[in-house]
Write a structure and sequence with these properties.
heterodimer; A: 165 residues; alpha/beta; TIM Barrel; 4 helices; 21% helix; B: 552 residues; alpha+beta; Sulfite Reductase Hemoprotein, domain 2; Sulfite Reductase Hemoprotein, domain 1; 37% helix; UCP030820 (chain A)
Amino acid sequence: MQRIIKDGAVVLDNWHLLDKDTTLDALPNSDNLIVPFKLWAEHAHALKARDGKLGIWLDSDEQAEDIADDLANFQLIALNFPSFADGRNYSNARLLRERFGYTGELRAIGDVLRDQLFFYLRCGFNSFAVRADRDAEDALGSLKDFSEVYQSAVDQPQPLFRRRG
Amino acid sequence: MYVYDEYDQRIIEDRVKQYRDQTRRYLAGELSEEEFRPLRLQNGLYVQRYAPMLRVCVPYGLMSSRQLRKMAHIARQYDKGYAHISTRQNVQFNWPALEEVPDILAELAEVQMHAIQTSGNCIRNVTTDQFAGVAPDEVIDPRPWCEIVRQWATFHPEFAYLPRKFKIAINGAQSDRAAIEVHDIGLEPVQNAAGELGFRVLVGGGLGRTPIVGAFINEYLPWQHLLTYLEAILRVYNRYGRRDNKYKARIKILVKALTPAVFAEKVNAEWAHLKDGPSTLTVDEVHRVADHFVDPAYQALQDQSALLAEQQAEHPGFARWMARNVNGHKKPGYAAVTLSLKATGYAPGDITDKQLDAVAELADRFSFGEVRSSHEQNLILADVEQTQLLALWNELRELGFATPNIGLLTDIICCPGGDFCSLANAKSIPVAEAIQRRFDDLDYLFDLGDIDLNISGCMNACGHHHVGHIGILGVDKKGEEFYQVSLGGSASRDASLGQILGPSFAQDDMPDVISKIINVFVEQRHADERFIDTFRRIGMAPFKERVYAANH
């Protein structure tokens, strides 16, 4: 099991992340699965009938709007960063939290490195699957890289100009 | 100017700590080259041809004398004794050691400066008119708005990894000295029928490989909604801008592909959700920031026309300098003075540590301790009493800043080029110098009048060649450096992109080529017509004919 950061602590992960090309007949019945968007789009009914918990993941070229009506079905949503330099899923994260009201676990997956964690946190992620070759404990500190911020975002909806003393 | 409070200060100090640790991890091999690259770029650190280059942010071109002295100190302590004013009003150091950059950042933080987001695929320094706050034709002071946008953009968590770099310019005057039409976003003030302030919003302008004059997508955005609207634009761009090809990743390509009208619809759809949210600006905040930009303690003075006329009659050199380097001021009895960093024999925009200290001293004595940098790579003392101009001119001559060439052919905008930059195809500084040497007759230069000559060493267009009346672009032909010439560009309100004259030239031919172009202008010119107006009237053909006919 991979060690991930969740709600500010390193924990063992009990979710199973499925590849993009996974087919329905290859699924185990009871595991907690994070399924690719395409599988959900095609087999939502069957996925809902399973016993294990259900999560979904979006790649950086997939849109939060496409799962906005289905959020109640997911115990976890993961957003993929194929490269840490691909910033599209920062926007998806904010949309899920701020526009579509998703309150469950929101996880960053893919090329997840400590130097982006603070931005992830601000955009609404609360769990981080730090890349396997890096230490999650080391990365924890970066969640506190900054002690003050200017903008409104998920972690602090009031911009600094509304909070200055 | 804006003065940090404890919040602003804490944010840049946190950054110094963060970057120090990132540098440590890079040097220890814990961060790969590829992982460190965007981190150092977002802190203005490039790895150049001979050494790293550090680009220090000068928000909208405004510096105090204290900050200028810090620049001098850094140039002495960490560099080879000089700095460079960039075409985005920033200050660049060409020789710092990568290991010492965290120390430089700590020194910068002491004077409320930083290098945040001066490079990388993020929102860059917000730029404006170098005469902001003092220009006679000003509609609003753009500086408070620049500062509000700066704070919003600083470490914006959603827009740290955009498809490509993103540049915002704000103009506050009737003339556009901020070149807003060639920016990713350009803003300028407009009032509605009730006299309330709003902004006209332009998107999708830019230079580089695909130069485009942007399109206005909103004719009146009420000021309260500035940040939510910017956020909507950036979100649409972050989500839908191309990421498969870095040469097609700027917002201008997206706007062009969708058409400005469709892009505007997408922005409006996004904005509908953000409008009136917490980022909606308040009167209190605008006042808080604007209070930092109130007028300095101006004296009640009269314009000194008679005295200045007398002094000019006595000193022809002073008269020439007054004609080119001194601008009008909104307050009677004051003037704005441009220090030319374009003396022949010096790289355009370069300035030594001693000169930086000297300018700081002049700023304290003549201009309320403030200095501005311009995108034309000069420095400005914006609040000089007219009775002091002659004394100031004498001091500037000793320091080498009094070349009376502002706006003339030799006031060349020029990137560092192949002498420093690893992206460059060709050198640009020697070409600038050769042209300056060819046109060394001041009377002749004065007769030629306003001509913008801009030189870039590569397609990235840091020297803004597309919007030079005469533009020069360094190109690589089978490993040799050649230069392509374009004519008819303009960065002003009537912005236009230059058209290519024809096949490119060898470096040694460039002074002759420019001479021929100027000769055609002189022969065809009506009275005191500007070069750009003559070009627009007669077109490319006469220039082309002359320049290439001689080659046969």
